[in-house]
Amino acid sequence: MASIFTKIIDGKIPCYKVAEDENHIAFLDINPNAKGHTLCIPKIEVNKIFDLNSDQYLLLMEFSRKVALALEETISCKRVGMSVIGLEVPHVHVHLIPLNDMKEMTFQNKVTMDDQAFKALAKDIAAAISL
Ligand code: AMP
After folding, report:
1. Of 24, 91, 93, 95, which residue is the catalytic one?
2. Which domains does the chain have, with CATH numbers?
């Protein structure tokens, strides 16, 4: 069965997209640790990040770097943290989290945003991205 992220890629379920290229898509995490928490994923459905081949892995890192630079430009933060977990969704994804405090990397600290706020934020980040 297709992962929830493959359904997003296929347009079967919606997301707050911030960037897309031929092989990747980036969208806002629906349950963010901090404002601007973004997921970068390869379009190919692979469960674990280190099962990507070297080229796929490096391309994902380069795509994530570009998204992170746009996050730094758009959101007031000390830096952008990066994490890879995958215990909930078995489709490779890089968490990019604008950080002001260590607790924002714990996945216990959540912020609430409404649909309008997600849409406006995704638009601002998308405008700052140069792929
Ligand atoms: P993990 O697999 O533990 O790295 O976590 C999966 C992440 O995906 C969590 O932070 C979820 O909030 C996020 N997530 C799950 N479903 C969606 C969705 N439909 N749109 C955006 N983010 C999602």
Report:
1. 93
2. 4-128 (3.30.428.10)
